[in-house]
Each structure stands twice: as C-alpha cells, then as structure tokens.
Write a structure and sequence with these properties.
β9 and β10 form a beta hairpin. This protein is α+β, with helices and mostly antiparallel strands and 332 residues long. It folds into 3 domains: 47 residues, no CATH class; 112 residues, Tetrahydropterin Synthase, Chain A; 125 residues, no CATH class. The chain is 46% helix and 16% strand. The chain is globular and about 55 Å long.
C-alpha cells in the first residue's frame, strides 16, 4: 500500500529523442530533463511545462512530453522512383511568444494525444511531401538547378512548419538504391491494391477505427485554420475582400456543423446504424481530413503567388470540406 508521501514512479523516457518524439505523461509527473511538457484539454487548449516542472492536470486534461530533437529521416518524394530520397534533419520549433498556441502543441493534442513515434511521424511527413508534389504545389524537377532547389527548400520548410510545427535544419538528396528492396516494395503495393478492391462478399465489413480521430481533428483544427486564414494579407480590391469573407463564413459554418455531427454508430436517437453505413461515414470523415490537410498546405504558401489563385484554391478546399461533412451527416 502506497503511503501518503510515497514518490510517484518516474516514466521511462529513454526512447524520447531517438525512436519517439512524444509520449504520454502521468498527471503530476515531472517533465524529464531536455524535454518539454504539454498539457491539453478536450477543447484542444494547450499549455507548456518546462523541463523539471510538474505536469499538473486538471479535470479532463492530459499531459504529454516531447523531445525537441534534432531528428533525421529519409523521405521518398516520388513513389515511382524509390531510389531517389531526401535526407531530412528537423526538430520541434522553439516556442513563439507571439502565439497563443504553438503549432506542434496543436498537432499533439489533435493527432497524437497518445504520443508519436519517429517512424510514425516520418510516414506523415512523407505522405504530406508526396501529396504536395503530386498536386504541383511543390516542384522538384529532374536536374534541379540551384534556384529551383532553393525554392523547393523554402517551400518545404514552410510546409512542415505550418502543418506540423517542425523546423527543418537540413535537407539533401540521397541515393537509396542500395537500401530499397524492390521485390518487397512491389509485393506491398500489390497487397495494398488487393485491400482497396471492392469486397463482393455480403458479409458485414467493420467500420474503420479512425472516424473518431478524423472528427477530433476537424473539431480542433478547423477553428485554427479559419483564424490563420483570416490573418492573410490580401491586396485591396472589393472582389478579393468579398471572396475572402465568404470563405471565412463557410469555414465558420463548417466548424459549427462538425460540433453537431451525429455519432458514427447512430442513424437516429436510439437507432443503430448498420456497419456498411458506418464504413461509408468513416470514409467521408477521411475525405474531410484530406481537405483539411490541403488547407494547412494552402496556408504554408499563402505569402507566395497571387491572391486570386490563393482564394481559388481556398474555395475549392472549402467546397470539398462541405461536401465531405454533408455526406458524413447523411444516413446512407
């Protein structure tokens, strides 16, 4: 039996700074040396605790601690060329006193409330990089010139800071040919294609387990995206102002829609939704999260390019969010 003044066991944080970026911390535990604590509530509000401080949690609050790095990862920019890689050195950006909430803290509260391993984060970075290259928002052409490389590096730095709150220390091209197992790569792609094929069996398919995570992200991040978009400086002009205000109003309505979204398993109060319809709802949630990621990427390039193209992209992203959220609400 523990006495009144028994010391609480300290968490094992040996993986932080190497295999893991962040892990959960028991309420009241001391933040390890070299790490930073983050306490957050269900509404996504966060506060930091310095190393050596106690992560005191109130009601409905959780605590994490993270090591700022630096970390290193090899990313694959193009799936069709697995031998071409980028070696990235990055770390968690230091706190900006001008911000009420740090971007990495929001990432932890929204996407990684149970902590995040380095391999998991690197997979997210790679997916983000590949998506932006495929969309043409980042350019990395063959035989890249110095100017093209500098433009790519600047855009990548801004993307990872805006999306994850990470600061890139270095990024160099590397040849991964010797470490790539092409046979295993082809087998993995074939397995993914088989898994994505439609199921002909009439047996019930369980709903994906990530609907709650997707809805959590939409609930916590949509207001932050709206606030960041509101601060974008646009050149004077009545048409640009009107379009900007329209996008902001639609985003505010989307945030309200997310807060009143029906539960995944309910068709109506007391009426359970079948598993096929739950799977459909979960897919719409994932589609909304894809559009949300594009919104963060849009904010990363907000200061580059013309305002008309920026608002055009914003209108497209908001339309995709509206479509996905409306489909998520409807009972199939």
């Amino acid at each position: 039996m523990m006495g009144l003044f028994t010391r609480r066991p300290e968490p094992d944080t040996s993986a932080l700074g190497s295999a893991a970026l962040a892990q959960t911390l028991a309420g009241g535990a001391l933040v390890p040396s070299g790490c930073v604590g983050v306490v957050f509530d269900q509404g996504g509000r966060t506060r930091r605790v310095h190393a050596g401080g106690r992560a005191d949690c109130g009601e409905h609050e959780q605590a994490l601690c993270f090591h700022p790095g630096p970390y290193s990862a090899d990313l694959l920019p193009f799936c069709a060329a697995p031998e071409l890689g980028l070696r990235l050195t990055f770390g968690v950006d230091s706190a900006d006193p001008r911000l009420a909430q740090q971007r990495f803290d929001l990432f932890l509260a929204s996407e990684a409330p149970a902590g995040v391993a380095l391999a998991e984060l690197c997979a997210l970075l790679e997916t983000t990089l590949q998506h932006e290259l495929a969309q043409g928002n980042l350019e990395l052409p063959p035989c890249t010139s110095h100017d093209e490389w500098d433009a790519f590096r600047a855009a990548l730095n801004e993307l990872l800071y805006t999306r994850f709150g990470l600061a890139v220390g270095d990024c160099v091209p590397v040849d991964l040919g010797e470490s790539v197992d092409y046979a295993q790569l082809l087998l993995a792609r074939a397995a993914e294609q088989r898994a994505a094929a439609p199921v002909e069996s009439p047996a019930a398919v369980p709903a994906p387990p990530d609907d709650a995570r997707a809805m959590r992200r939409l609930f916590l991040e949509l207001p932050c995206v709206t606030s960041a978009l509101r601060l974008i400086a646009l050149p004077p002009g009545p048409d640009l102002f009107r379009r900007h205000q329209d996008v902001l109003q639609r985003l505010a309505q989307l945030a309200l829609s997310v807060t009143t979204m029906p539960a995944l398993e309910l068709a109506a109060p007391g009426v359970r939704l079948d598993t096929h319809s739950q799977s459909a709802r979960a897919r719409h949630s994932e589609a909304a999260v894809t559009a949300l990621n594009e919104a963060w990427a849009l904010l990363a390039r907000a200061n580059a390019g013309d305002a008309d193209a920026l608002l055009g992209d914003a209108e497209r992203i908001v339309a995709n969010l509206e479509l996905a959220c409306a489909a998520r609400r409807v009972v199939p």
